[in-house]
Write a structure and sequence with these properties.
The protein has 254 residues and is α/β, with parallel strands linked by helices. It is built from 7 helices and 17 strands. It has helices at residues 65-70, 105-115, 132-138, 157-167, 179-192, 221-224, 230-233, and strands spanning 3-14, 17-23, 33-38, 42-51, 55-61, 78-85, 96-101, 118-123, 142-146, 153-154, 172-176, 196-199, 215-216, 219-220, 227-229, 242-244, 250-252. The strands form 4 sheets. A 7-stranded mixed beta sheet has the order 10-9-8-7-11-12-15, sandwiched between helices. Strands 1-2-5-4-3-6 form a 6-stranded antiparallel barrel. It has a two-stranded antiparallel sheet with strand order 13-14. A hairpin with a 2-residue loop joins strand 1 and strand 2 (17-23).
Length: 254
């Protein structure tokens, strides 16, 4: 069953990224995602980047046919959505460090707003940083890392995370971003005996655990995830190694 919602507001986050705010009363937990149908193009999964009682939002980077088409939408246009899907983050403990890398920052932002936890936002350059003002309005501390040093810490999210863990201990880390970032976040957490929850991404079609497109080992990312604990990730042999494309072919990360 899908819902048709009206776009209430569009916010330019970066040169290639927009946030779409729409009226929707559904109950959504931080870390869950929805399926967006773009007629004539595709249906795609999108993390929910903003949650309030009567409105929700998605933050979209224009990188493929569907997302580029979505960027053409205007305020007042309508979206067809299904969901929410997935398990979301466990936010029962507020002593956490939240990390968002690239457009993955969108997936963790509701957790930042709900908990006010310390937050790292990382990207390639200052032009790619998104949702920084939202984080500053809610998080106790916000640190920025850019690969080229154009804003904040000169380095990546994992390097900055290690620096912050020298000064303060956290019960666990929440992160979403490119899989290479998540892989090295996980490896660093293993090395430092630090607990974590990571939001993973795979090619999805149904969003409900039926089609099997998003399978990683024996887990369905859309149904069993997208959020996994460190113990669960330790059992995923494909994590950080390979993914499947739209045709089901295995594609190696490295």
């Amino acid at each position: 069953m899908s819902d048709v919602v009206t776009i209430k507001k569009i916010i330019d986050e970066a040169y290639d990224t927009k946030t779409f705010v729409f009226d929707w009363d559904a109950c959504v937990k931080p870390g869950q995602f929805i399926m967006i149908w773009i007629p004539g193009t595709d249906e795609i999964p999108m993390s929910v980047s903003g949650i309030s009682e009567h409105t929700k939002s998605i933050t979209v980077k224009a990188i493929g046919d569907a997302t580029k088409k979505l960027h053409e939408y205007k305020e007042g246009d309508r979206l067809s959505i299904r969901g929410p899907f997935g398990n979301g983050f466990d936010l029962s403990n507020k002593n956490i460090l939240i990390i968002g890398g690239g457009v993955g920052t969108a997936a963790v932002m509701p957790a930042v707003v709900q908990t006010g936890a310390d937050t790292i936002i990382a990207a390639r350059s200052d032009k790619d940083i998104i949702l920084l003002e939202t984080a500053k309005a809610h998080a106790k501390n916000v640190w920025v890392a850019t690969d080229d040093g154009s804003m904040g810490f000169h380095g990546n999210a994992v390097q900055l995370m290690k620096e912050k863990l020298k000064d303060k201990s956290y019960d666990y880390i929440i992160a979403c971003g490119p899989e290479v970032m998540l892989y090295f976040t996980y490896k660093a957490c293993e090395e430092l005996n630090q607990d974590c929850q990571l939001s993973l991404e795979r090619y999805m079609k149904c969003g409900a655990g039926v089609c099997g497109c998003c399978v990683m080992d024996d887990k369905r990312i859309c149904k069993d995830g997208p959020v996994f604990t460190k113990d669960q990730i330790s059992q995923l042999s494909e994590f950080g190694v390979s993914r499947r494309d739209a045709c089901g072919r295995v594609v190696k990360f490295r």
